[in-house]
Amino acid sequence: MADDPAHPPAERTDRSPWNWLLALPVVIPLLPFLYNRAEPRLFGFPLFYWLQLAFIGLGVVCTAVVYRATKRQS
Amino acid sequence: MTQINWTELVVFSVLFLIVAGMGFVAARWRRPASMHHLDEWGLGGRNFGSWVTWFLIGGDLYTAYTFVAVPALLFATGAGGFFALPYTVVTYPMAFLVLIRLWSVSHRHGFVTPADFVRARFGSPTLALLVAITGIVATMPYIALQLIGIEAVLRAIGLTGDSFVARHLPLIIAFGILAAYTYQSGLRAPALIAFVKDALIYIVIIVAVLYIPHRLGGWSAIFDAADHKFTAAKKGSLLLPEANQLQYITLAFGSALALFLYPHSVTGVLASKSRDVIKRNMAALPAYSLLLGLIALLGYMAIAAAPQGVAPLMVDGKPDVSTVVPVLFDKMFPSWFAGVAFAAIGIGALVPAAIMSIAAANLFTRNIYVEFLAKDATAADQARVSKLASVLVKLGALLVILLIDPQFSIDLQLIGGVMILQTLPSVAIGLFTRWFHRAGLIAGWVAGMSAGLAMLYTIPNPATHHAHFGGSAFSLATLGLPWNIPIYAGFLAVAVNLLVSLIATVIARAAKIADGVDATVSSDYFADQGDPRLVS
After folding, report:
1. Cβ distance B495 to B426 under 8 Å?
2. Which residue has the higher pLDDT, A63 or B463?
3. DSSP A44-69
4. Hey, which of A50, B27, B295, B370 would disulfide with A45, CB 3.0 to 4.6 Å?
5. Alpha-carbon span B279 to A71, nearest angstrom
6. Does B530 touch chain A (CB under 8 A)?
7. Size of interface A-B (CB pairs under 8 A)
């Protein structure tokens, strides 16, 4: 089916203030002073290891929020 | 010469053959009208939903090499190896806004490769060719490295020997089967197999992190054992030394930037059926990062399990650290489960190897063959060329592993990571703005490549007695600058690339050098499922 250039898809955008939330899980894991420590331990894991694993959760939450929040837009 | 563990071998082989069968049958899954079209063979019909995409991309990004090399890194050097964690956390939010645009414009124009997009956006066959060559060269050592993962597993089972045949025949058989079903079914094969692969990996790792620490006396004991080892050997450490922090974060960040520039990642993304599938996956794929973190810690478990006889196997007189995880499984699990674990790793090599070879083949077909050799190639011609190219790519990778020192492939993959980053300005930034001039981007690519290769050349690796290409941590002091702190070479190289692209763009505009025509319009970048494909 040929596309009619006179009628492109309606005006859409990916811009949203919610997108700023994506910066959080990008910046925080790249700040070693936050996690380059051994104490306090959690389940025997030094902080360096458990905190970086916890950042996964931060990433999932932020990305999921942005996905849901921007869904209604287009 | 080690004894063959027959239980492990049988379990491994049975699972491997089941998966091979699935690969052949995959051609009938979501059955296409005809497989003789790159959209079907190379992109599985462009119609994968969220779950299939999750398994496919997960299976694609988390390779056997990852599972073998990352714990090996922690085993040998400690905290520095954990960069893989922040790397995989940071990559998904960064890729979120970029990939949906790439998907949309590719959906509208029928792009199959990143070079297709660059060709249309900047109107430059030369720039597209550079992107294509970069993609192919960066991908090939990656395929070879998957074989290292399989070989490490086969060694742990005991399938080694002194003759060339004894050592390599199982690998050759495995790859022959892989080549055959990829030829037959295209992307559908790894997509289907990824379900099995990922399920096996999750099961094995969950069992491993519950069972092995229990046997070794708990997590505290494991971390303490690692700490003792590093302190005693004066090599490696449980935390990051201050001087290594910059290298750690630039390596993580640089790797995150590069990940979705790799052609095989793009293939996984373009095969999905809508923007929503991609967004959901950016939120859900980090589950694999959790898996990766736990896999990394297997390296410390291997240290703590030294009293149980866990140590790297000797290969050609030197300890091969990449065998540390297979040996750990061999010694700590009952044989039948170790066989399952080995199958997980082995199959874990097949999925990415298949996708990578398809991606490299697509690049060759669309951006070299059709562009320069056969402009009138039909869809069926393209599919045929790609099928053949993917076999040749795999054969090349196999020959490299068989005939050349595996360390060579590791060096090449390191270079590949720095190389693929050089496509960032044209592909990733090009998705957002057309500001750069095509001549500027070409100049930037040349500058970034040269800088990257030059930097890598100056880095030695005393452990492997390599004077060049020994690692990726470059110290600015090498240039005579006052800071003797290591920083990821790829990060520096892409910075050079951007700077030169910028300057060269300004110069090109001033000199009124002809720029290419942008075949895309801004609404293309928001197209979604259901929007019609442009007929060109």
Report:
1. no
2. A63
3. TB-HHHHHHHHHHHHHHHHHHHHHHH
4. A50
5. 10
6. no
7. 128
What are B30-87's pLDDT values in tens digits?
888 888 888 889 898 888 989 888 888 888 888 888 888 899 999 999 999 999 999 9
Model pLDDT for residues B205-227, shown as the tens digit of each residue: 999 999 999 999 999 999 999 99
Q: What gap in Å lies between CA B324 and CA B303, rounded to an integer? A: 9
**What secondary structure letter does DSSP report for B117?**
H
Q: What is the least distance, in Å, from the CA of A70 to any CA of chain B?
A: 10
- The answer to whether B273 touches B280, Cβ cutoff 8 Å, is no
Distance of CA B266 to the CA centre of its chain: 11
Residue B249's contacts (CB-CB under 8 Å, 6 or more residues apart) are: A30, A31, A32, B86
Nearest to B326 by CA among B57, B141, B75: B75
Nearest CA in chain B to A69: B279
Q: What is the ipTM of this complex?
A: 0.88
Tell me if A29 and B535 make a contact (CB, 8 A cut-off).
Answer: no
Is the Cβ pair B218, A67 closer than 8 Å? no
What distance in Å separates the CA atoms of residue B473 and residue B488, rounded to the nearest whole number? 5
pLDDT top residue among B125 and B155 = B125
Q: CA–CA separation, B12 vs B343, rounded Å?
A: 5
Report field, pTM of the whole predicted structure over 0.80: yes
Contact B526 A74 (CB under 8 A): yes
